[in-house]
Design goal:
This protein is an alpha/beta fold and 681 residues long. The chain folds into three domains: 189 residues, Rossmann fold (3-Layer(aba) Sandwich), CATH 3.40.50.1110; 284 residues, SGNH hydrolase (Rossmann fold), CATH 3.40.50; 96 residues, Immunoglobulin-like (Sandwich). Strands 7, 9, 10, 12, 13, 14, 17, 18, 19, 20 and 21 form an eleven-stranded mixed sheet that branches. The protein has a five-stranded parallel sheet with strand order 2-1-3-4-5, with helices on both faces. A four-stranded antiparallel sheet has the order 22-23-28-27, with no helix packed on it. A hairpin with a 2-residue loop joins β9 and β10. α11 crosses α17 and α15 packs across α16. The protein is globular.
C-alpha cells in the first residue's frame, strides 16, 4: 500500500499500466480494458494510462521486446508516480523462453530501474500473470512449464527488491469461463483485474465478518490448530475470545484476517467472539470434536427421507446438540432440464453451493445424506461424549475429474489433454456430456461452467473448505467413471493427492465405497479396480456395498449399512478398535490337490448372512475363458476352501462377487461382506 502526497490541489497521481495484450485489450469494447476501469474506481484524483502493447515480451531479446516499443517511451515520458507491470505471458513463446529465459530476472530489473531512475516513479508494482488454461495451443509443448517458471522468477524479484506483488492469477485461475481463447480475459475478467489492483492501491474497509464456512453451532476439529478467517478493515486489529482464551490478529492490506486457535480437546458449547474497533461477530454453541467431509455423487447425496430402511427411526431420534451438520446445498439439480440465465451466471461465478451449520433434529435433516446421517448415528453410539459433525458436499452424476483441482489436472499429460474440451471428450462419460449439454443449452458462454466440468466442484466447493480442519473424508463416487476403470485409477490417485495438498494433510484418511450391485456389465471390473486401489494408495480404505444394491436402480434405497460400514472402518483405523471392523481381505491362497484354500484378514469367523446355508459368489475361469459357477465352498474360521477336483490345473482365474448384480453372501462376524475381487491363479 502506497501513500502519496500531492503537491497541489490540481496535481493528479499518475498511474502507468505496463503490459501486453491483456493490458491493451484491443479486442474488447472501448473502456473495458482494466486501466480504464481502474480509472473509474480511483476517481478524478488519479490519472491512469494504458501503455499495453499486444504481443510484447519482458525479455529484451524476445520476438517483440516491450522496451523497444513506442508505448514504453511514452510511459517514461508520462513520469508516473505509480507503475504497474504485468508482463511475461508472451515470454512463454518457444522463440523466447528456451533462448533467453536466463535473462528474465536481469531484464525485469532493468525495466524496473528505468521507471525509478528515468521516470522517477515513487512505487513499482509487479504482477503475477493472469492464467493460461490448458486449451492454449502450446500448453503442453512448453507454455505450461515456462509459465510456471516465469511466475517463480517474478516472485523472486518481488522478494529481492522488496516490491509489492499483485497476484492476478489467483482471482482468475478458477474462471475459465472468462477466457474464450484460454489466454485473454473478457470484459468481466478485466474488471476483476482492475478490482484486484485497486485493492492493492486503496486499503479496503470491509465490515468485520467470518467466512461462510463458520457459524454458530459449528464443530471444530479437536486436537488440531484451527484457522479462523474472515474480512475486516485493512490494518485493523482483531481480538478473539473463546471461553477464557484471548487471541489477537491483524487484518492484512487486502482486508483479510486469520487467527489460529491452538489445539483444543473435545468439548463445548463455547461462545466465540471476534471484535475490531468498529464491529463484533459472536458465534454461539461452538464445539470441538471430530469432523468428516462427506462427498461424491448421487448415492452420497441420496437424502435421508428417501431411505426406506432408516428414515422412520432416525426421524424420531433425539440427537445430542453436539452432533452437527453442514449441508452444502447446490443451487440447481443436474436433472433433465435446461438451466435459466440466473443459474448459469451463478454457476460461472462459483456460487453453486450454499449452506449453514445445523443440528439433526430440524426438519432439514430429512434432506441430509442418508449415508452421512447413518455414519453419525453409528459413530456417536461408539463415541457418545465426543461432538461429531458431517460437512456434506455431493453432486448427483458428478465425475471424479470435477472434484480435482485444476493445477493437478493441468500437470498430468492425460487429463491436461481433455479437461478444456470436456463436453466432446470421450474420456468423460457420455451421460455427463449429454446431461451437461442439456443443462447448458441456454448458455452462449464458450467455456460455461458446470458441476460435471473438470475442476468445477473443487473450485466452487472444496476450495472454500481447505482451511477447515477435518478428521477424514467419506467418499461415494464412481458411477460416472465406471466406463473407464483404468482412467479412474489414475484420477482416484490424483484426487487424493489434490485434497491432501489442499488440506495440507499428507496423511488425510480417505474412506470410499465400492460401487453397489446393479445390472451394468462394466461394474464388476470397476469394483475390483476400486478394491485394488486400496493397496496402491496410502491411507485409503474401501467399503463394499454390492449386497445392498438394486438390479435396476442406480440409487439403492437401503443406505444404513453403507454408513455403518464407513463408521466401522473409521473406528478400526482412527480410534484403535481392532474387532475386525474392516472388510475381509484376501491375504493369500494355496493350491491343494483338489482345490484352493483362501486365507483372509479382518475376520475371525466367516458366515453366510442372507438366510441361506449355502455360500455363493465364487466363480472360476478356465484357460479357454469359460466361467464355472456352483463351486463347493467350505467356510472355516478365517479360511475358505473351494473344492474343485482334479481339474484345478485348468483354471487361470478366481473371482468373487463378480456378477454385475451379485448375490454373493459371505460376511465376517460383523456382517461386513468380502469385497468384489479377482485374482490370477
Amino acid at each position: 500500500m502506497l501513500t502519496l502526497s500531492i503537491s497541489s490541489a490540481q496535481e493528479k497521481i499518475k498511474v502507468a499500466c505496463i503490459g501486453n495484450s491483456v493490458t491493451e485489450a484491443l479486442m474488447l469494447p472501448a473502456g473495458k480494458d482494466y486501466p480504464s476501469i481502474l480509472q473509474q474506481y480511483l476517481g478524478n484524483t488519479y490519472d491512469v494510462r494504458n501503455f499495453g502493447v499486444s504481443g510484447s515480451t519482458l525479455l529484451s531479446e524476445g520476438h517483440k521486446p516491450y522496451i523497444q516499443s513506442e508505448k514504453y517511451r511514452q510511459s517514461l515520458a508520462f513520469k508516473p508516480n505509480i507503475v504497474i507491470i504485468a508482463l511475461g505471458l508472451n515470454d512463454t513463446d518457444p522463440r523466447n523462453w528456451p533462448n533467453y529465459g536466463d535473462h528474465f530476472i536481469a531484464d525485469y530489473n532493468s525495466l524496473i530501474d528505468s521507471y525509478f531512475k528515468q521516470a522517477q516513479a515513487k512505487q513499482v508494482y509487479i504482477c503475477i500473470n493472469t492464467p493460461i488454461f490448458s486449451g492454449h495451443k502450446r500448453f503442453l509443448s512448453g507454455t505450461r512449464d515456462w509459465y510456471d517458471a516465469i511466475q517463480e522468477r517474478i516472485k523472486s524479484i518481488s522478494h529481492t527488491r522488496n516490491l509489492p506483488l499483485i497476484d492476478l492469477r489467483q482471482p482468475l485461475h478458477n474462471r475459465i469461463d472468462l477466457f474464450d481463447d484460454f489466454l485473454h480475459p473478457n470484459a468481466e475478467g478485466t474488471q476483476i483485474i482492475a478490482e484486484t489492483i485497486f485493492h492493492h492501491l486503496i486499503a479496503p474497509e470491509y465490515k468485520l465478518s467470518v467466512d461462510a464456512i463458520y457459524g454458530s453451532g459449528m464443530v471444530l476439529q479437536r486436537g488440531k490448530d484451527i484457522k479462523l478467517t474472515g474480512r475486516g478493515k485493512a490494518f485493523s486489529t482483531i481480538d478473539l475470545l473463546l471461553d477464557t482464551q484471548r487471541l489477537q490478529g491483524k487484518v492484512d492490506s487486502l482486508g483479510r484476517w486469520c487467527v489460529v486457535l491452538p489445539a483444543q480437546p473435545a468439548g463445548g458449547p463455547y461462545s466465540l467472539t471476534i471484535r475490531d474497533n468498529r464491529d463484533m461477530v459472536r458465534l454461539d454453541s461452538v464445539y470441538f470434536g471430530d469432523v468428516y467431509f462427506a462427498s461424491g455423487q448421487s448415492n452420497m447425496a441420496f437424502e435421508l427421507k428417501l431411505d426406506t430402511m432408516q428414515v422412520h427411526r432416525l426421524q424420531q431420534k433425539i440427537w445430542p446438540k453436539y452432533i452437527r451438520y453442514f449441508k452444502n446445498k447446490a443451487i440447481a439439480e443436474t436433472n433433465k432440464i435446461s438451466w435459466d440465465a440466473a443459474t448459469l451466471e451463478k454457476t460461472n461465478k462459483l456460487e453453486f453451493f450454499n449452506g449453514k451449520w445445523s443440528d439433526l433434529n430440524a426438519a432439514a435433516s430429512m434432506h441430509y445424506s442418508a449415508i452421512g446421517v447413518a455414519f453419525l448415528d453409528a459413530l456417536s453410539a461408539y463415541l457418545p461424549e465426543v461432538p461429531l459433525a458431517i460437512v456434506e458436499m455431493a453432486v448427483g452424476g458428478s465425475n471424479t475429474e470435477s472434484w480435482i483441482d485444476r493445477k493437478t489436472l493441468e500437470h498430468n499429460p492425460v487429463t491436461a489433454s481433455y479437461i478444456h474440451n470436456w463436453l466432446t471428450a470421450d474420456f468423460i462419460q457420455d451421460f455427463c456430456r449429454t446431461r451437461a449439454a442439456l443443462n447448458l443449452k441456454n448458455s452462449s458462454v464458450k467455456n460455461q461452467r458446470h458441476p460435471y466440468q473438470p475442476a468445477y466442484n473443487f473450485e466452487a466447493g472444496v476450495d472454500k473448505w481447505k482451511d477447515f480442519q477435518i478428521k477424514g473424508v467419506l467418499w461415494y463416487q464412481g458411477e460416472s467413471n465406471a466406463h473407464n476403470a483404468e482412467l479412474h485409477e489414475l484420477l482416484f490417485a490424483m484426487l487424493l493427492t489434490s485434497w491432501r495438498e489442499a488440506w495440507n494433510a499428507p496423511e488425510l484418511p480417505f474412506y470410499y465405497v465400492q460401487l453397489s450391485g446393479i445390472n451394468r456389465p462394466s461394474w464388476p471390473n470397476f469394483r475390483n479396480s476400486q478394491r485394488q486401489l486400496e493397496g496402491e494408495v496410502e491411507r485409503a480404505w474401501v467399503v463394499p456395498s454390492y449386497d445392498v444394491g438394486d438390479s435396476l436402480n442406480v440409487h439403492p434405497t437401503n443406505k444404513y449399512p453403507v454408513g455403518l460400514r464407513l463408521s466401522q472402518a473409521v473406528r478400526a483405523t482412527l480410534y484403535g478398535d481392532f474387532k475386525n471392523l474392516l472388510p475381509p481381505q484376501l491375504s493369500g491362497f494355496s493350491k491343494e490337490k483338489d482345490g484352493l484354500l483362501l486365507h483372509f484378514g479382518h475376520v475371525a469367523t466367516f458366515q453366510v448372512a442372507d438366510g441361506s446355508d449355502v455360500p455363493v459368489g465364487f466363480e472360476l475361469v478356465d484357460k479357454f475363458g469359460k466361467i464355472h459357477h456352483n463351486l463347493a465352498v467350505e467356510l472355516k474360521d478365517n479360511t475358505i476352501q473351494l473344492k474343485i477336483g482334479d481339474s484345478i490345473s485348468s483354471f487361470v482365474q478366481l473371482r468373487y462377487a463378480y456378477q454385475p448384480y451379485t448375490r454373493a453372501n459371505i460376511y465376517n462376524e460383523n456382517l461386513i461382506p468380502i469385497p468384489t475381487f479377482k485374482i490370477d491363479l
